[in-house]
Every structure is written in structure tokens, then in C-alpha cells.
## 1
Amino acid sequence: YLHVSEIFEEAREKYKREYLGSKKAQELIAQGKTPDPEQSWKGFKGKNFEKLIFYIIQTELTSDKVKCILGASLGRKKLSEELSKVHRNLIVRYGKYGILPDADLVIYEPPTCKVMGIISCKITLRERIAQTAYWKLKLASDPATMHIKGWFVTTDEDGDLTSSP
């Protein structure tokens, strides 16, 4: 996992070739549009980075006292009773409305469905670190969610966290 950026770089050209030959790309061409393999690659890479972090966390969790789930699973229309409680315990209130924070991964305690933390997984920083900080501040502003920790996982491919001597 320390070389994830190198692995993605090796896969990049193969992915682009396969994308241009895909049904979706062919449909775009038939509509007179130009498929953008680079844009498709960014989404593919981001989703797979999230899955990699999820896999790493899953392999490290050795107890049934803590679970990690993909945050997108809380957006489904039909939730199990357990995930419905997790959803409720993560809601950020905006007046009379409730919104789920941007969370790629959610860590919670199954017996109580208490959310312990959320993880944002991003390949590049750019404005995304501000989004993560925003959601942490929103969670911290409510007594029901102030205990939830926020983590940011990045490959920092832009080098924003690296200092030059």
C-alpha cells in the first residue's frame, strides 16, 4: 500500500485503452461526442483507492466490536436495521433537514451503532481537505456527533504535503 500511486500509474494506459474500446465510449462516439479517458480514469482511480483503504482496514480489524463500511452504502433506499441506526447516528442537522457528511468509509460499533469515525479517501488534496475539515466542524458542532473522529487518507500525488529543502 505504500506504492499505490506507482501501481495506479502502471495501470493507467491499459485502463485508457480499454475505456476507449468500451461500450460506453463507443456510444459517445456514435452520438458525435468525444470520450474522455482521462476523466474516466480519475473516477476509476479514486473509487479503487477507496476500496483499497477499505480492504486494508478490514484486514486489520480483528474484533467484532468495530466495523468499517463504505459510506455509499448508507445512501441506499433500503437499509438493514443496523445500518439505519448508523445512518441516524451520523446525520448532520441543517435546521429541519438532515444530511450525511461526505464519508468514504464509516467506522462504528455494531452493538450500539455508535459512529466512531469517518474517513475521506482522496488521491489528490486540492480543495478536498477543506471539505473534510468542514464536515468535521459540522460534526463537532452537535453534541450527538461531536465525538466522531475524522480522518483524511491521501496519496498526495500533487505533493501538497511535501516540503522541499
Note: The helical segments are 4-20, 23-30, 37-60, 81-90, 128-140.
## 2
Amino acid sequence: MAKIQNISEIHPTLGFTEFDILERYRKSFHESELGRLHSVFPFEHIAKTVGLSDQHLGRRNIFSPCAKIALMVLKAYTGFSDRQLVEHLNGNIHYQMFCGIMINPSFPITNYKIVSAIRNEIASRLDIDSLQEVLASHWKPYLDSLHVCMTDATCYESHMRYPTDMKLLWESLEWLYRYICRHCVEPGIRRPRNKYRNVAESYLSYCKKRKRKASRTRMLKRRMIRLLEKLLIQRDEIHREYGTLLRYTQDYQKRLSIIRKVLVQEKEMFVGKKVRDRIVSIDRHYVRPIVRGKETKSVEFGAKVNNIQIDGISFIEHLSFKAFNEGIRLKDCIRMQQKLMNVRVRCVAADSIYANNANRKFCTKYGISTSFVRKGRAARDEPLRKVLRCELSRERATRLEGSFGTQKQHYSLSRIKAGNRKTEILWIFFGIHTANAILMIDKIRNRTGKLHDMSLLKESEEVSRLLPELHVLPNKSI
């Protein structure tokens, strides 16, 4: 059992006076980037907003609510897997200080699944809008250009194999046949006859070929659809006769309903019909194909997120695993920024997809300057408008689109390895705002430095104002 204490509990028991090792570690922690990252996040306010409790995860109450939030930030910052994160947490005292705990080296944490348990707990309570209001109110004093709204959409891909009809059908067949065999073992009945082994051999031979003819693909697909339909009928017959002897979990029922939908969709596509909300993965049934039109990837599979950016800090405006037109969400982006910052938006920088007539009329009505290409006759102050459009476009192309690459390359958002929909949303949320927090470190340092310089300037002005009076006084009074 891991023996862990909060740092606040263990500090008074140490007997060091001149050589306080823990105090030196604490000092080095506050001077490091990890310590500055810790100071940027309002962990107590976030934990209170999420509604986390000191419930037991395991045999002891190991992590406090603030430590749970800090652990998710630490995972996004380091990019470690759950096992690697626990191993580094056991041996790195700075990581322990970041989470506000102290682990006994003789009794390290051995259950790395505690990270997954904490992630599921927070994901079940996550409310993006309320948490972003907390972060915005905490970071607002250090932000500039609050009247400028930049917006764009991107796709944070899920970690999954490239989906094809053949892979999807085979995964359905393999899972369903395995459970039919288990259902026959429990009541001790004979396994029903089917063509599973023949189809398995044909599919293996098909996968080994470098070039596959369309006729062979269509023939094998027809066989797999018929076999999947037959396996579902056999499974239903077993359930009808021996359903009282069998045990079904909630995940089993969910997976079975997904396979039934896959069969319906594959039969419709086989005859040439178009299918809406196409399932591309049995494990991640919520993921839909998103056509992006990029040069390297024409189709992406994951969450499509419409972000707004305020002085380089990104916030999630809309998140969906289905494709949506981000061009109709410009009004929502402007309203969201005004709600977060309590400042009226005066300038908008967005891609050409946002430049529809409805958005143009909205921006003209409320006097909002945009980066959109001009339509119609030129105004009297067209040179100034052109300079503003170019500046807004350049700023959006460099800062906003550059932030997408930073988040995906350095904060575990390139191929998200979450297990379900809620944890994947949690993964995206902490990845984006951990990247924001790194930027906030420099913003807070610069702002506090300016305030310090201003205070020194005021003191020097007061001293210079008193200098003539000091020269008049006698030396002894000075």
C-alpha cells in the first residue's frame, strides 16, 4: 500500500534547521518552469467548480481534489503514459510538489491505473464552459487586446487505425464469434455451424495481397456481410433459449447494438446507398469521418473543435465528433469572448469560410472590423482598412494556426489515446489549457515586471521631489 502524505502535513515533523533539504527542494521547485506552471493554475477553484470530493480511490485517500486536477495537468505537460507518469511521480520530488503530495520511497505507488480512475472521475463531471470562465477570470488581468477575437477550427485526431469496410466487418465478426463460443461453453451446448473459419482464411489471404481487385473485394465483402447477419441470428437464438443462464455486461450490450448498426450501414452501402452518421470504429463508435480537404489528409477522424483566441490564449467555443460548418459560429464566438472578458469585441480575424453574408452584416451592424476580403465599393478610409485586414490576417495565420501545431506536437493532442468520449474531451481540454498556461507564465512575469518598474519609478519621483528639501536641512538632521 502506498504511503502518501500532503507536504503541509509532513513539513513540521522534519528536524532540520540549517540544512533543510525539503526547503531547498521547494525553493528550486518555485524557480523551475514546473513551479511557475503550478502558480498559473487556480487548482482549488477548478476542483471546487468540478465538484471533486475526497473519495477513496483504492485503499487510501491518496490524492486530494487539487492533486487530481494537478495530475491531469502534469500528464498533458509531460506527455507520459499512465504507467510512465506514476513511475516518474514516485521518483521525482518536483512532480510530487506539483501535486501537493509526498510519497514514501519505501512504499511507492504501484497501481498505475489510479491515473485512469482519476481521469474518468473528472471526465464524468467536466463542464467546459464553467471551467473556462474560471480560467478566463484568473488570467484576464494579464491579457492585452481583449477587444480582438481570432477564431478557427481544427481536428484533434483519435488514436485509431485507418477505417475501411473490410476491417470494420472483420472486427465485428471476430468479436461476435468469440462471444458465441463463450455463450455455448457456459450452458454446455453445441456450437452452431457457420462459415467463420472459411471467411477467416479468405480474409487473411486477402490482407496479404499487395494489389486487390475490386471484384474480389466485393465478393469477400458480400460473404462477410452474410456471415455477420447469420452470427447475429445464431446469437439471438442462443439468447432466446438460454438467456437466463448467461450474464451480459453493459459494455457487451452496447457493443452488440453498435455491431447491429454496422451491419445495417454496410448492407446499405453495398447496394450503393449513402449512409449518414457512418460508424468507423467499434471501440470509438462516437467518431465520425470529417472531410477537411487538407493536402496530406483529406479525411480526419476525431473531435472537431472551433477555438477562439484572445491575446494568444485559446478557448474552446464548440466541440463535436461530427462534422459541422464552423462558418456559422462566428456570432457565437463573439458572444463567448464578450462573456469571458466582459469587453466589447471590436476586431475579428477569421478564415474565409467565416466570410458569409450573414456574418458580414452582423459585423457591420455592430461596428466590428474584420479580416475578410472586401466586397463592393471601397470606402473613403480604404487604405487604413486594408492595413488593418492584413494585420489581422497575419496575426491569425501565425498565432492561432501556430497554436494548433504546438498543442498537437507538445501536449499529447496529435493522436489522442483516450478510451471513451468523455475522457477524450477531458484530454483535449487539459491539453489546450496546459499550452495556454505555458504562455501565461511569460505574460504574468512581464506584467509583474512592468508593475515593479512602475513602482520603482514612482519611488524615484518621490525621492527627486524631496531632494531639494533634503539639501536645505542641516547635516545632523539628515
Note: The beta strands are 4-6, 101-103, 148-157, 289-291, 299-310, 313-320, 347-349, 369-370.
## 3
Amino acid sequence: MNVNGIDSFSSLDSVFVVAEAGVNHNGSLDTAKQMAYEAKEAGADAVKFQTSIPEKSMSRFAELAEYQEKNIGKRVSMLDMARSLSLTFKDFERLKRYCDEIGLLFLSTPFHTEAAVFLNDLVPFFKVSSGEIVNKEMLEFIGSTGKPVILSTGMSCLGDIEDAFLYLNSQRDKVALLHCTTNYPCPYEEVNLKAMLTLKEAFKTVVGYSDHTLGIEVPIAAVAMGAKIIEKHFTLDRSMKGPDHAASLEPSELNRMIACIRNLEKALGSGIKEPNPSERRIMLKTRKSLTAKSDIERGTILTKENVTFKKPGTGIPPKFAEIVLGRKVVKDIRQDETITWDHMMEE
């Protein structure tokens, strides 16, 4: 999949899987590189981080969300937490080079306009987080680049998303919408996966799913329902302290999720209902044909008394029985022999 040259997400030929590293590197460039490596090994199409200068993204009075306070195990300001988890712009340039070296697409979510300006030279398209869907200034800048956009829609109603489209001023096929529930971890009863289909119908664009549930069932279900993009948080170790580790997959689980998605893609098929090549071979053995109940001599009329239906399916199908009964055979037919059209045609 050549995502670097993508013009619109409607051209995706398979599910695009984003391994969301987020801030699970805990502020370490080496950990971030290891995460990129693990994402590549797991089969992800891209690894994604989060880029911001904390002081430009949040006030010193901003408080942690409940899940953040619970997951980090202590009460600090959101700004202090973000500072402890941040990488510098130079770090992201190094990460981008590393991802290029290992053949993995680098993505990162900007959390303010300056971060978006910086990332414009590093990413082939933008990913906008749920919390930034009302950030008019940043969205207008992103729209001005002409690049495709993946927009997460957690905490949003349809009106918020409509406004975001206006700010982006982008063609609908250049914006993919991810259904999302902003809770870490997200309980199953809050997933509302059917809302993804509502987004597809309302905005006539490619849809996907950004998952914060535990496990891999829900993103796989999303693919079955038509998601073309899956984003899933992962971590090197779920026991690490941080706001998002608890709702993240470990590398082996990420690998399993992606393998299941690829298998499901194969299973979904083309949608055309017809026998496939292997079925055509089996069909000859498992369907039934008109079959002689007893020896039938040449010149005998075929009737219900001397014809039955048995496997294999190499002869005349039972559905043509009404056409065949009453005809005279021109060749001898042995008991249990499959009846073919040749038995009624003169040589």
C-alpha cells in the first residue's frame, strides 16, 4: 500500500492499521524508537505519536481527566503530566528518519497550530485527535495544506463534525472519519459501534474506528462492519505508569489483532455470490444427479419408477427432472449409473 502518495482515503485497497504509540514512550526517544520497531514487526501500516509543546496546548490550571488521574496513580496538573511525557521537535525529526529507515510510515497528531506547521514537512497526511475537532485555527491551517486528513470524532455530535469539515475546507473524499469513544479504557457498553455507520451515511466518506477498549474484539468487529482505518493504542508494557498504558495492547497482542484483521479482509471477499473454484470441484461430489433405480434398457421411457436422485453431481441436476421424465433413452443405463444428456441423444 503506497500511502505516501495517497490523494484520498477512498483509494485504500485494504484496511489501514495505525499503531497508536501516543505518549506511551513516557518521554523517552529510545522507547519511542523501540515502539516504532515493534509496530513494524506487528504488521502495522503506520506508527503514530502525539506532538505538542505542552505550554502551547494547555493551561497550567487544566486538570487531569478522571481516567488520566486513575491511570497515572497520582494527582498532578495536566501540564505537569504532559511535560513528563513530551518529546522535542528534534526528537520527532529523528523518529521520522528512523521510521523511514525501517520502512514504516511515521504519523503524529498535532495539538496546536505550531505543531501542525512543524509536522507538515514530516507527514503525508494529518491525523486530528478528538479533542482538537473544535480547534478552528489549527483545522484551517491543516485544510490549507491540501493534505488528506483522518479526523477522530470522540466526544462529538454530527454538528461538531460538520463544523470541522467547514474549517478544513476539504473535499469529502480527502477526510476520513474515525468513530471513537474518548475513555481509557472504554467499556463495551459505551462503544456504540453502529455510530460509525451513521458517520458513513451522514458524511458520505471513508470511515474507521479508533479503539480504546481492552482486547481486540471491537476493532475486528469494526472491520467486519466496513471500517477502512483502524487505530489502536499499544505499549511495550501495560504495567508502565502513564495515562494510556492501561487501555493499550502489548506488541504480541497488536500482532494478533492485525493478523485477525488481515484474515477477516480475506474472508469478507468481493461480495459477489457465486461458487468459488474450490466449491466448483466439491459441487460435483456433493450435489445430486438423476440416477437409474435399476437397469434401464435402450428404448425405455424414463419415469419416476426407474429414476431417483443420488450423488455425485456429474449428471443431470434434479431440477431438470420434469424435462427428462417421459423421454426415451438411446443407450443402456446400469443401476446406480448417473444419467446424462448423452443417454437421450442419438450419436
Note: Residues 251-268 form the longest helix (18 residues).
